[in-house]
Every structure is written in C-alpha cells, then in structure tokens.
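Project outcomes to date are best conveyed with an example. Our students and postdoctoral researchers have been running inverse folding experiments weekly, and each run begins with a structure described purely in tokens. The record below, which covers 317 residues, was selected by the lab manager from last quarter's runs and is presented without edits.
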C-alpha cells in the first residue's frame, strides 16, 4: 500500500480542478457573467469555465447524494417522506470583507439554477442580521461592525433553521450599504427553495455556549456544503482600497450615501479613512475571527493577486 495522507483536505491546482468539469455545459454568456460581477472583481468566462463549472458539478452531485441520504432516513423512520420533504440543500460562503464573496455567491446561484434538479436557488447575505445602527451604538459596537457580536446570531440561525425545516415562507431583515443600516420597512422573503446560499463574513463561526452550559446550534450546523474564499491579506487590502476609490466615484456620489462626505474631501483623505477602517476593523476581524474558520469549510478557493483562483483545497475527511 502506498503512503496514506491523513490531511483532511486534498489540494488541487487550478488545472487539476478544471479538468474535473467533465461535460458540464457552460450555461452563461459573457454578458450574464458581467452582470453578476462585483465592483473590482475579475471574473470572465475562463474563470467560470475553469473554476465555477466544476464546483457547480460537484454541488449537483452533493445535492443528489444528500437526497439519497434523506430518503434512506425516511425509509428508516417509516414516515413516507414527511419529515424531510422540501428540505433545501444549504450552502455557506465565507471570507473577508472585499474578498469577492458576493460575486462567488451570485455566480453559484445562477449556475446552480440551470440544473433541472434544483431550479429554485435563493441567496441571503448575513448583513441583514447585523444589529441596526442605533442598537450597535447602544452596545458600543460601531467600531466592531462585521465582528461576530455585531450580528443577531440567534435570528440568523432561526432564519436558516426555518428555511431548512421547509416552512413555506420565511422572512428576514435587509441591510443597505447606501444608508449603512438595516432598512426599516423592508424584508426579504424565501419560499421553500431547492437550494439556499448563505453568504457572510462569519457564517463558519462555531456556536457560542448557551448560558446554562448547554450546546446551541450555529448557522453552520445547517450547512450541507461550505466555501471559504481565501486570498493573501495584502491583496484583500488592495482590493478593499481600490473598491473604496471606485465607490467614491459612483455609489458615494448619491447624497443619501452614508459615505457621501468622502466625495467632498481629497482622494488621499478619503483613502486615509478607508485605510484606517481596514487596519482597525476589517483586518483584525479577518485575523481574529474569519481566517480561523477556514479549516471548517468543505472547499477553500485560494485567489491570486488578480482575483483568479490559483489553487483549491477540498475536504475529503
Ligand atoms: N460602502 C459601500 N457602498 C456601496 N456598496 C458597497 C459598500 N461596501 C461594499 N459594497 C458592496 O457590497 C458587496 C459586499 O461587499 P463585502 O461584504 O465586502 O463582501 P465581498 O467583497 O466579499 O463580496 C459588494 O458587492 C460591494 O461592492
Ligand atoms: C456589511 C459588512 C459587515 C459585511 O456583511 P456580511 O458579510 O455579513 O453580509 C461589511 O461589508 C461592512 O460594512 N463592514 C464595516 C466596515 C467597513 O465599512 O468596511
């Protein structure tokens, strides 16, 4: 017998991974990819073909296998499927601020919805579960936005648990980058999707211990598959600052934008603010909270300096 690696991950180069696409057809056009791309992200058809099509094929296999397991459970329970019918397959997507999670999530949503077995794919971002600005101020958490404690974790976990339990209609709060706050009169509604994608900085965090020492469940306990979007911290910082520069020329121009004030000062002054936010909030959150959860993901995508995925690590144990 040859050497047996006990590492939980199998590491694949981009070329090795892209060969696993088999005959999965490319269902998106260049124009559709363009529409899904976030500000500053580089995702073209090559990237979709080489990286995201094999992932969509792997996920399709996982969905099928999970259905098989559920029907085995139903046979065991002798309940004719009522326990697990309509249970969606739940995917978590984690990573730093500005690493490009939302582009990965939107792309997967579009690709997965093209499979006839699971056409209804819903996407929620965890920013909706941040405490409203007034509550963050009351708790002294305005400089900890994005840290685990700045979210209503109980509400997020309940939301995903309700969707997974097959509730016909589940609603959740909505965050706006424009006003930098939860939108008071807006809710999003999810109707029994085949697949639910949950994207956010902290989705792989383990549960906090309950007050009485009992174990609680975290949102990650409901995931059937998870992806960690990984890159070097220096690259992510550059993407964050580049995006801030672009937002200053676009979204911040809106007088209602919370960041509108940074259009009135010089670019250098505005960038000083962004550098400071990166150094005091987003980088410490990455280092202390987000990166340590990387080893919990089913798949790690390792991006190079140009946003292109260079290597992948897939959980095998
Ligand atoms: N201040 C802002 N104003 C408007 N849009 C923003 C602002 N900050 C971030 N965004 C947008 O919000 C989305 C999510 O960003 P983020 O949470 O940093 O995650 P990621 O870059 O990993 O997708 C991105 O599409 C980004 O362009
Ligand atoms: C809204 C966020 C906390 C991220 O949300 P999430 O990933 O949970 O959907 C983040 O993008 C943010 O606004 N951070 C605050 C610090 C900053 O302005 O960069």
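After processing, the design step wrote out the following sequence:
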């Amino acid at each position: 017998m040859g050497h047996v690696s006990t590492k939980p991950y199998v590491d694949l180069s981009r070329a090795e991974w892209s060969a696993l696409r088999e005959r999965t057809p490319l269902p998106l056009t260049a124009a559709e990819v363009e529409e899904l791309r976030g500000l500053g992200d580089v995702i073209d058809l090559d990237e979709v073909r080489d990286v995201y099509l094999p992932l969509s094929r792997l996920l399709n296999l996982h969905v099928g296998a999970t259905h098989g397991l559920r029907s085995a459970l139903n046979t065991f329970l002798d309940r004719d499927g009522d326990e697990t019918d309509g249970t969606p397959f739940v995917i978590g997507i984690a990573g730093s601020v500005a690493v490009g999670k939302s582009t990965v999530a939107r792309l997967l949503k579009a690709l997965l919805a093209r499979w006839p077995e699971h056409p209804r794919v819903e996407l929620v971002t965890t920013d909706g579960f941040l405490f409203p600005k007034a509550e963050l101020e009351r708790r002294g958490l305005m400089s900890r936005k994005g840290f685990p404690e700045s979210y209503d974790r109980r509400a997020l976990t309940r939301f995903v648990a309700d969707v997974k339990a097959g509730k016909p209609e589940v609603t959740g709060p909505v965050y706006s980058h424009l006003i930098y706050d939860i939108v008071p009169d807006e809710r999003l509604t999810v109707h029994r999707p085949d697949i639910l994608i949950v994207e956010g900085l902290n989705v792989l965090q383990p549960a906090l211990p309950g007050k009485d020492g009992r174990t609680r469940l975290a949102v990650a306990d409901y995931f059937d598959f998870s992806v960690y979007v990984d890159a070097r911290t220096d690259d992510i910082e550059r993407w964050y600052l580049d995006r801030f520069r672009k937002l200053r020329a676009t979204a911040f121009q809106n007088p209602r934008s919370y960041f509108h004030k940074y259009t009135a000062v010089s670019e250098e002054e505005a960038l000083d603010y962004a550098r400071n936010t990166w150094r005091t909030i987003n980088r410490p959150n990455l280092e202390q909270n987000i990166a340590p959860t990387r080893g919990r993901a089913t798949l790690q995508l390792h991006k190079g300096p140009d946003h292109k995925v260079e290597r992948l690590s897939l959980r095998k144990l």
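DSSP finds eight helices and nine strands in the chain. Residues 9-82+90-315 form a domain with the Rossmann fold fold (CATH 3.40.50.300). The training component of this project remains on track.
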